[in-house]
Please model this.
Amino acid sequence: MAKLLVVDDEANIRLLYSQELSDEGYQVVTAGSALEAVEKLESESFDLAVIDIKLKNESGIELLQRIVKERHTIPVILCTAFSCYKDDFSAWLADGYVVKSSDLQELKDEIARVLAKRQRGAYV
Amino acid sequence: MDWECCWSREQIEPESCPYIGEGEEDLLVSQRRRIVEKCVECPRFKNDLARMKGSGYPLSDVLPYILTEFQEQKAQMGAMLSFLNSKTREIKFLREVGLVLQTSLDLDEVLSIAMTAITAGKGFGMNRAFLLMTDKDRRHIRGYLGVGPRDYEEAWRTWEDIGRSNFTLRQLARDFQKTKLTSEKVKFHDILNQLTVPLADQGHIFNRALTGKKPILVENALNNPDLDRGLARILGVDTFLVMPLISRNRRIGVIIADNCITHKPITLQDMQSLETFAFPVAFALERASLYERLQEEVAKQKAANVKLREQQELIVKMEKMALVGKITSSIAHSIRNPLMVIGGFARTLLKGTPDDDDKRGYLESIVRETRQLEDVLSEVLDYSESLFPVTDFWDLNELVGKAMGELEGTLEQAGVTSRLELAPELPMVRIDYKQISYCLKTITTTALACMEPGGELRIESVLDGDGVLLRISDDGKPLTQTAQEALIAPFFQTQELGEGVGLSLCKSILERQGNSLTIISRPGGGNTYSIRLLTRKENI
Model:
């Protein structure tokens, strides 16, 4: 069972993600801030992180930078309300990119795609 | 006594006097006029006088004195009449020319009337004239226009044409402006090119004439030790007149006039007449040149004003749009999360609701309406994102790598290679990714315009205090001060940078985000564009 870290500063969204992704068969751990996410990343191992690009008082991109620098093996999917990041971002740092929507199907597909890619050995 | 001459007869037959020509038949019946006009010059009359002297008439000794005095007086009268006639012609001519010169603001028209006046038979009748004018920066006198025939053949042909036409001077000048001015400007190109003289060369005859404010008649130029023989060789004559053109103490230029075809001597009277003429010409030339420059400036100002107005309108529009965008984006963004929660949980609930449950219809409505709202929000956000900067922290080196990757084709097309010297471990910079990427691409494109194939574009990133410096250096021709000023003055047009607002827009974008753009032309060649981007000290 793949273990996911979901980082979002909105409790309801964390709950929604948690429920929906658990239904998909994933083990979901949530974090409400970048600091909490870093702590969890240091103490547990994850197969994938889903990070909101806009966290309160801090940037999801900076968290992403840190993850990329320190934990090269964990793939990251960025979620945001802004679609403008997509063109610039998906090509380099993040492994996936999803525009936030009440329909989580796109996120679920993206998670499956990134994990499948990881299983093929791309992140070893 | 039988007299040889006919002076004693009241009326004569035509064969009696060989000096009475066609059209002078009235002299045959007018004894008084015949004596005054013909006999006093007639050799037969002189013989009669000599015979008379020996005849013992008392008046016969005195008559020759009276006759001589009469002849001298007559000659003087003739000369004065001729002088008066020539002055009358000159005044009429100057009036005609003056009228044009006083009213015309067209430099070509002034040139045409002035040069036609000097060279036309109805004017001063010089064979050839060159006009030299001081250049705009007032450092040199330069050959501007030459008028006249290049050789005998052309001279006879031109003079015959003019002789056949019955044009007034003004008509001649108009004809010249219409049909010949352009070709005449080219015709003496070789000579005109050699006539450039620095205004500082006080010994040169042009400057001597300008300083002395008097025309100088140069004679025997090839053997005159005080003169530069080169000038005579260039002109191909050893006698010519140098006429200064001065208006209100400003040195406007010089006219050189000569009789290269007829070699007719240039008289003192020619000089004086031309001197009288030179003043209005100088004044008219100055006025027409100033008017021409004024027109150029007015046209430039008008174009700049139009551009400025367009840009101002654009800026106002952009600012309004940006504000609208910012507000809508902020609202839309804060709506999206709750909407996602509402729609998301409705979907979750829907999954666990049996098909026959009444609540299912309500939940489906919530999901559908939420989806619709999300679609509207996406549209609003997509639109507003393009209107205001979304600043965030980015890795500049990544941005450079990606932007340069996109420009690979452009670089290849220009035959230019790029070298990236990016400092590792740079702090992230707070920028709008798209806009900075645009700035980098614009600067690179601008740099490429100054580069030759085979050149190298160097892009460096270095830590610079609390910022990161991005330097783009080309090895092309250095930009002039004007081109560099284009950065400081938005919408300034230069030949090097074209009329786009690319670089000034970059500067504006960067400054709005608290960053800066500077440009330095390296003395050894090439330009360096430096972008300084701010970082935040407390990077997480």
